TrEMBL record:
Residues 664-719 are annotated as: Disordered. GO terms for cellular component: cell surface; plasma membrane. Residues 709-719 have a biased composition (Polar residues). It is a single-pass type I membrane protein. The chain crosses the membrane at residues 468-488. PROSITE patterns: SEFIR. Pfam families: IL17_R_N, SEFIR. The keyword Transferase does not apply. The keyword Transmembrane helix applies. One of its GO terms (molecular function) is interleukin-17 receptor activity. Homodimer; disulfide-linked. Heterodimer with IL17RA. Heterodimerization with IL17RA is independent of the cytoplasmic tail. Associates with non-glycosylated IL17RA constitutively. Binding of IL17A and IL17F induces association with glycosylated IL17RA. Forms complexes with 2:1 binding stoichiometry: two receptor chains for one interleukin molecule. IL17A homodimer preferentially drives the formation of IL17RA-IL17RC heterodimeric receptor complex, whereas IL17F homodimer forms predominantly complexes with IL17RC homodimer. This is Interleukin-17 receptor C. Gene3D superfamilies: 3.40.50.11530.
Length: 719
């Protein structure tokens, strides 16, 4: 709701937003039909006995839709009651049976005649009405000429006038036939009160209602009741909760006129106002004016509390119902985002003020519950922090079970779920064999499982201690060696230390730079080649979709690319476009067809998904300094790379690896001699994967070690 607020009038006067109702004079109920039908209303009410569903002997009339309209039933011009008019739409159900049904409906023996000419199809339609404290059932007989009968088509409607009901009441309607050939129709409707109808001069119970308006003055909200000085009325403020009964907040009997002030911190979306004259059987008028107010929604989330109840319960406490999503996540020590897990908890419309169960086998301090609204994190609470202690440096293993007892394991890390025994440069990959042995020996705690998946928490304390012990031992050994070298060859040691200092600076610069590697998935051999390249680029921090399949499946390729690209560029990194025949074909499709180009080839093809963002950077001149390109010798010619992408350096691998590594590492790149050694190491790491790709193989390493200078297809270096 915008501020300043518009006047919310509950007055009963004439307004363009109120509804003018038709008046029916007299107390008699009536029924009328649409043209072509004949109908009759039975005198008095009947018993509401739907009975069980039976098979139709042939074509029968059945109700298909209920429609209501509000009217006034008046005894005098100013003495009326609210009444509900009901229209029942009818259709034909079933088909003619031959030859028995033909004789029943008077059909001629001639087989060319398809339906009776002088017969009628008849139905008894029951209409049931409930509105506390009233309950009624009426019976309508309807006939339709057999000539108009078309199975499955509507034949018209019958209108009943009418069921009396109280203002603001909830009414329920049912309709079915006797006998019943299908499930009964039902309709529930909330009737308006005096404020929404033009009935002030017709319904006597609405005459004495106070005039209530809501307005704003800065941070204060004013409830203005404009009534005479002698009129007594009741005023109630309450929380109208969808889940559970209403919760009174403030109630008082007053004498008008009154001006009541509320602070903006008291506003909630479910805060409603009810006012009524202090007279017997008076009509109460209610309004909930803050359902769309942004300040009320902010107050609601400030008042909400997420509680975790041992052993495995959780509860969201709030004054009003919330449209929210709750998820289970894993919080690693040292900060960082809490990573979502399976199993998911309840989605939209989380039940507030009700204890819910967490689907866990065992508790762990790193397990947390997050509550989000409209993709924004609102609340987070880790499991029983008081009883379980601080966060632990444990590794969470995700087990996926397949057919024939096949299973795969990956470790949840900030970069994604890393497969055990992989060649990735992460802690989980380096300790993959040890973690697998811990799991098999029962040292890991099972947190959750179902038929297809399981979660395990494996302690990492012993590996941390071992690592630090090795580090200290290596440091002592290195210090001893350096001291001895310094004693025996003082001058040489000074020069060596100077070179070592340069290398350390270059290494720090390399580690500080991130790279996002984009490629088009050609086949499994090419993917292994890409994975080998990404692993060989260590200590650069390389992001590639091969190591982030879980995030790709959860977020989608386009969302994953946007997040990785933003993080890489914010950290001063570079996006590497790895060209292949498939990648070049995709680029040409996008350059020719634009947004209408073909969709990504697979659920994990980040290259195809990223073109909608990459191409505008090149077309608008934003690519230099952010992107560089590469392709493999023997798999693609330099002329095949689209000219648009040559505005950035494009390198042939592995023949131009030194230039590629120097440009990739930026201004802090090592000296040329060290770059050459580094390039040979990378080339040797690539060679096993190169041998498995057609048109590649030994030529890659030979090209790197052969004579002759190397050059890139683009500028000499990135700014």
């Amino acid at each position: 709701m915008p501020v300043p607020w518009f006047l919310l009038s509950l007055a009963l006067g004439r307004s363009p937003m109120v509804l003018s109702l038709e008046k029916l004079m007299g107390p008699q109920d009536t029924a009328r039909c649409s043209p072509g039908l004949s109908c009759h209303l039975w005198d008095g009410d009947v018993l509401c006995l739907p009975g069980s569903i039976v098979s139709a002997p042939g074509p029968v009339l059945v109700p298909t839709r209920l429609q209501t309209e509000l009217v006034l039933r008046c005894h005098q011009e100013t003495d009326c009651d609210l009444c509900v008019r009901v229209a029942i739409h009818l259709a034909v159900h079933g088909h003619w049976k031959e030859p028995k049904d033909e004789a029943k409906f008077g059909r001629a023996a001639d087989p060319e005649l398809e339906e009776p000419v002088n017969a009628f199809l008849q139905a008894q339609v029951v209409l049931s009405f409930q509105a506390y404290p009233t309950a009624r059932c009426v019976l309508l007989e309807v006939q339709v000429p057999a000539a108009l009968v078309q199975p499955g088509q509507s034949v018209g409607s019958v209108v009943f006038d009418c069921f009396e009901a109280a203002l603001g009441a909830e009414v329920r309607l049912w309709s079915y036939t006797q006998p019943r050939y299908q499930k009964e129709l039902n309709l529930t409707q909330q009737l308006p009160d005096c404020k929404g109808l033009e009935v002030r001069d017709s319904i006597q119970s609405c005459w004495a209602l106070p005039w209530l308006s809501v307005s704003a003055d800065g941070d204060d909200v004013h409830l203005v009741l404009d009534v005479s000085e002698e009129q007594h009325f009741g005023l109630s403020l309450y929380w109208n909760q969808i889940q559970g009964p209403t919760k009174p907040w403030w109630h008082k009997n007053l004498t008008g006129p009154r001006n009541i002030t509320l602070n903006h911190t008291d506003l909630f979306p479910c805060l409603c106002i009810q006012v009524w004259p202090l007279e017997p059987d008076s009509v109460r008028t209610s309004i909930c004016p803050f359902t769309e107010d942004p300040r009320a929604h902010r107050n609601l989330w400030r008042a909400a509390r997420l509680r975790l109840l041992p052993p495995r319960g959780w509860q969201l406490n709030a004054p009003c119902s919330l449209l929210a999503e709750a998820t289970l996540c894993w919080q690693a020590p040292g900060g960082g985002p809490c990573q979502s897990l399976v199993p998911p908890l309840s989605w939209a419309n989380v039940t507030v003020n009700k204890t819910l169960e967490l689907p866990l086998l065992n508790a762990h301090p790193n397990l947390c519950v997050q509550v989000s609204s409209w993709e924004k994190l609102q609340l987070q609470q880790c499991l029983w922090a008081d009883s379980l202690g601080a966060l632990k440096d444990d590794m969470l293993l995700v087990e996926t079970r397949g057919p024939q007892d096949n299973r795969s394991l990956c470790a949840l890390e900030p970069s994604g779920c890393t497969p055990l025994l992989s060649r990735a440069s992460t802690r989980a990959a380096r300790l993959g064999e040890e973690l697998l042995q811990d799991l098999q020996s029962g040292q890991c705690l099972q947190l959750w499982e179902d038929d297809l998946r399981a979660l395990w928490a494996c302690p990492m304390d012993k590996y941390v201690h071992q690592r630090w012990a090795l580090v200290w031992l290596a440091c002592l050994l290195l210090a001893s060696v350096l001291f001895l070298l310094f004693l025996f060859k003082k001058d040489h040691v000074k020069g060596w230390l100077r070179l070592l200092k340069e290398d350390l600076r270059a290494g720090a610069a390399a580690r500080a730079r991130a790279a996002l590697l984009l490629y088009s998935a050609e086949d499994s051999g090419f993917e292994r080649l890409v994975g080998a390249l990404a692993s060989a680029l260590f200590p650069l921090r390389v992001a590639v979709d091969l190591w982030s399949r879980r995030e790709l499946s959860a977020q989608g390729p386009l969302a994953w690319f946007h997040a990785q690209r933003r993080q890489t560029l914010q950290e001063g990194g570079v996006v590497v476009l790895l060209f292949s025949p498939g990648a070049v074909a995709l680029c040409r499709e996008w350059l020719q067809d634009g947004a209408s180009a073909s969709a990504p080839h697979g659920p994990h093809d980040a290259f195809a998904a990223s073109l909608s963002c990459v191409l505008p950077d090149f077309l608008q001149g934003r690519a230099p300094g952010r992107y560089l390109g590469a392709y493999f010798d023997g798999l693609l010619h330099s002329e095949a790379v689209p000219a648009l992408f040559r505005s950035v350096p494009v390198f042939s691998l592995p023949s131009q690896l030194p230039d590629f590594l120097g440009t990739l590492q930026g201004p802090g790149a090592p000296r040329p001699g060290r770059l050459g050694q580094r390039a040979k190491q990378v080339s040797r790491a690539l060679q096993p994967a190169l041998d498995q790709v057609p048109s590649l193989g030994k030529d890659g390493l030979t090209a790197l070690e052969g004579p002759g200078p190397t050059s890139s297809l683009g500028p000499e270096s990135l700014p």
